[in-house]
Structures are given as C-alpha cells and as structure tokens.
Amino acid sequence: MARRGVNAPVQPPVPLADADAWDAYVAAHPDATPFHSRAWCEAITRATGHRCHLLTARGAGGVLAGLLPLHHIRSPLFGQALVGSGFAVGGGLLADDPATAATLAGGAADMAKSLGVPSVELRGGPQPEGEGWHREEGVYAGFARGLAADDDAELLAIPRKQRAEVRKALESELTVTTGADAAERCDHYRIYATSVRNLGTPVFPKPLFDAVLDAFGADADILTVRANGAPVASVLSLYWRGTVMPYWGGGTADARRLRANELMYFALMRHARAKGCTRFDFGRSKLGTGPFAYKKNWGFEPEPLVYARWLAPGERPRDTNPTSAKYRLQVDLWKKLPLWAANRIGPLIARGLG
C-alpha cells in the first residue's frame, strides 16, 4: 500500500503519474463520489491548509485497486482527526473488493497512530471492522430521488401541502439567477453566512467555496433567488454523474415569508434537468431536526446513513455537532453576534470542523 500526500500550495504538487491514476480510478469506479475526487481534495487543502494524505492499495502489476483520501483536520477547539474527506458528507473507502477495503482501513489506523492523531472519521463507503473501529448510526439520514420528466410531473411528485407552497412561489415576482461569477459568489456567501449565523453556527471561509467552484468548473454553480433584485436565498450545487447535489445553501430572514426556498429548490430541479441530470440528492440531515422534516415534506424518503470511526485506546470522538448540549450556550450567543463579527471570527472556527 502506498501513502501519498496532497500538499498545500507551498509544497510540491502530487506527482503527475499519481494524479492521473487517481483521476482515472475515481472516474471508473461505480461507487465514487465527488468527495473521492482529486478536485475536491485539492480544493479543500488549497482553501483551508489541511493536508490531504492519499492512501492507495495496488494489485498485480502495480495497478490501483483502492484509495482513501484523508484530510488531517487540526483545531485548537475541536482537536484533530483524519477525515475522509474533509468538509464532505460522503467519501470513505473506495476499493475493488472487501479485502482491499480492509487493507486501506488498516492503513488509515496505522497512519493515525504514526501521526499521533486520535481518530479517523469515514463518512460513507464500506464499514471497516476490527480493533478500534466503531459504527455510528442513528444520527443522519440522506434524501435522494429521481427527477421527474418535466415541471408538471415534478410538481405532482411533491406532496399536496408542499406542492401548494411551491405553486405560490412560482406565481410570485421572485426571480432566479444562476452562474459562478464574482457577483454570484459574493451574493451566495453573504446569504449563506447570514443563514448559518442565524442558526448559531460559524460560517466556513469564503475561499472554500471559491476553491470548490474553481476546481469543479461546469460541474458546480450557484442558483440565487432574488426579490426586487436583492438576493434572499442561494445554493451552491455540485453535479456528479447525472445527480445534482445542493450542497451549501441558505436564506435570509425574509426567505421563509417569501417562499424563496421553495422556489430555489424547484428551480434547481428544473435547472438540473436542463443540464441532463436525472436525480436530485437533497443531502443529509440530522434525525429529528427541521431540515429533516422539510425534506420529507418534499416527498423524499430518509435513508439512514452509517459512518465509521476509529479511535485510539482511551480516546473519545470529536464533538463537532452544533446541536450538542455542550455547545448550547455558544450557539445562543452566536445568534446574537453582528454579522460582520460572525463573518470575521466564524471562518477561524469553522475551518477546524472539517
């Protein structure tokens, strides 16, 4: 098994042969996600400085048989972990067979030990077994379904009560723009930062969004809903193998009253169809939360997600869950911060969440 690092800009780049093999393996593997891709992993490193180690397993003749990108997330508040992949909701082990996946899992634990890192977090893929590995379930669910053939069929796929809200949004004077230019990026970040501040959580650094958009090119963009020209809701989406993934989205305090979110997601379905997508991945949500209920209201059925974590002896998992009782006071205080202060301090904190 080989161990390579995807380095920060001040360090040498990945050797071209390794980069080409990485790209080719992800492109060919049926279970690959955007979070396994070199584009994602290098974007995260470029924007946050968290180094990405690429674990690879090779078969006969040195042919790549599996890989696992792991970002080394370090934070003075949340500790450190090897995360596959950083800032992702998927990823994990990607291999030709269970034996190769097990080899990679063992390599991940060995790497953590050698680096003095207390845990490895895998968000998807085959579940490792063995000493130190734990399954984590009952926390998140994913929501995905096929896109309908046209707008009329899409409306009929939405349950009646939510469909009525979408129809009202479609009949409103709200407008929609799409793109990835500097103006769209600034509007999206302002809306997203406002949204997460209102939820009591720190915002990710803007270079993270820019790096992902730059890395994915035509396979990522921003859709923004506007009221009288002013942005009120916005979402940055990824496009992967015929699936649209609304990934970072939010709205202002007026978005709910204006039904801007209803228009945003329906317009994204329409936009994705025009780009040739056939599936809509609404992302993950914690069980029992408002976003979980909202996605069910759209007719999406929750699919339980199982994650894996390796812990060194005597160590406890990182707690990065903003709904944890541990952070209740901090969340309440954060909601009261002026937006300029939240945007100044937030990225310094959020870059350590990974």
Automatic annotation (TrEMBL):
Domain BioF2-like acetyltransferase: 163-296
Record's protein name: FemAB family PEP-CTERM system-associated protein
